[in-house]
Design goal:
By secondary structure, the protein is mainly α. Helices cover 81% and strands 2% of the residues.
Length: 322
C-alpha cells in the first residue's frame, strides 16, 4: 500500500514535469519556424498542458479501466472550474473579454450535449462517438486559429521566455523526454491509483474524480496562479475553459476511440448511478456558474469564485461519504 502511494506520487510528479518540458520544447521549436504566438498557444501549448489527462484516460481505457478514463475527464472539468478557476475569480474578479469567450463557451456546451446523449441516451461510449468528439476537437482548433489570425488584437501577448534561446537539439530533447515522462507518469498513476482504490475499498471512479483529476489538472493550476501573479486573471480563465473543452473532446475522444466502454457504475445516489445523478450535472452546473454571469455582465464576480469553491468542497465530501 505504501509503495503504491509512493509510486502514485511519483507518477504525478513525472506528469507535471513531463508536461512542463513538453510545452517548453514544443513552443521553442514552433517559434523557431516563426509560427504566430496565437497558433502556438491554441495548438501546441494547449494540447501539451492537456497531455496528462489524455495519457491517463487512454491508458486507463486500454487497460480495461473505462471508469478511470470517464471519471478523469469529468473530474478534471469539475476541478478546473470549481477549484482552479474559482481561486482566480475569488482572488481577483474583474472584467473579461466576452468576444473571445463566446466561441469556447458555445463549443463546451455543444460538446457536453453530445457527451450527455452518450451517457444518458445510449449508456455507452462507442468508437463512432469517439471519432465524433475528435472531429469536434479538430473543428474547434481550426476555428480558434482562424479567429486568432484574423483578430490578433483579442489575443493575449505572450512573454518571450528562455526556451526560445535554447538550441534546436536541446528543444527536441525536451520534447521527447517530456513525452516519455508523461507516458511513464500516466502508467504509474493509473496502475497504482487502481491499487489504492482497491485497498481502501473506494471505487475507481471516485479516485479518478478526485485525486487523479486534481493531479492531472496541476498544469492548469500553475498557469492560473501565474496569470494571477501577472495580473491577467482573464487569461487564466480562458485557459481553464479551453482545457475543459479538450477534456470532453480530446481526452474522452482519444480514450473512447482506442477502447470503447459502457458508462461505469461506481457509487449509487438515491438508488441511481451517482455519475449520472451528480457528476455530469455538476460538471455542467459549475460551467454555467462560471460563464453565464461573465457573459451577461462582462465581468467576473467574487461571489462566483466563493460559490464554486464551496461546491467543490461539498463535492469532495460527498464522493468519500457515499
Amino acid at each position: 500500500m505504501l509503495t503504491s502511494v509512493f509510486l502514485f506520487t511519483v507518477g504525478l510528479v513525472l506528469l507535471i514535469k513531463g508536461g512542463d518540458w513538453f510545452v517548453d520544447g514544443a513552443t521553442g521549436i514552433a517559434r523557431r519556424f516563426h509560427l504566430p504566438d496565437i497558433v502556438v498557444g491554441a495548438t501546441v501549448v494547449s494540447i501539451g498542458t492537456t497531455l496528462p489527462e489524455v495519457m491517463v484516460s487512454a491508458t486507463g481505457a486500454l487497460n480495461g479501466q473505462g471508469s478511470m478514463a470517464y471519471g478523469n475527464a469529468i473530474g478534471s472539468i469539475i476541478c478546473n472550474t470549481a477549484l482552479i478557476a474559482a481561486i482566480s475569480v475569488a482572488a481577483n474578479p474583474g472584467p473579461v473579454n466576452t468576444a473571445s469567450m463566446k466561441m469556447p463557451v458555445a463549443f463546451f456546451f455543444f460538446s457536453a450535449a453530445v457527451y450527455c446523449v452518450a451517457a444518458y441516451g445510449l449508456g455507452t461510449f462507442s468508437r463512432p462517438l469517439g471519432l465524433i468528439l475528435l472531429a469536434i476537437f479538430v473543428v474547434y482548433m481550426i476555428l480558434t486559429v482562424r479567429h486568432g489570425l484574423r483578430h490578433p488584437e483579442t489575443a493575449e501577448a505572450e512573454e518571450h521566455t528562455p526556451e526560445q534561446e535554447r538550441s534546436f537539439p536541446r528543444l527536441l530533447a525536451l520534447l521527447i523526454v517530456g513525452a516519455a515522462l508523461i507516458a511513464t507518469g500516466a502508467n504509474l498513476l493509473v496502475d497504482h491509483g487502481t491499487i489504492i482504490a482497491t485497498e481502501l475499498g473506494v471505487p475507481e471512479t471516485v479516485i479518478a474524480l478526485t485525486f487523479v483529476a486534481l493531479g492531472t489538472s496541476l498544469p492548469e493550476l500553475v498557469t492560473t496562479i501565474t496569470s494571477l501573479r501577472k495580473g491577467h486573471a482573464s487569461l487564466g480563465i480562458g485557459n481553464v475553459i479551453g482545457a475543459n473543452i479538450f477534456n470532453l473532446v480530446l481526452v474522452s475522444g482519444v480514450a473512447v476511440t482506442l477502447a470503447p466502454f459502457d458508462v461505469p457504475v461506481g457509487n449509487l445516489l438515491f438508488g441511481y448511478n451517482a455519475s449520472l445523478v451528480m457528476d455530469i450535472p455538476l460538471m455542467i452546473l459549475v460551467m454555467l456558474l462560471l460563464t453565464v454571469p461573465a457573459l451577461v455582465s462582462k465581468k467576473l464576480h467574487r461571489w462566483q469564485g466563493i460559490t464554486l469553491l464551496a461546491i467543490y468542497a461539498a463535492f469532495c465530501v460527498v464522493q468519500f461519504a457515499l
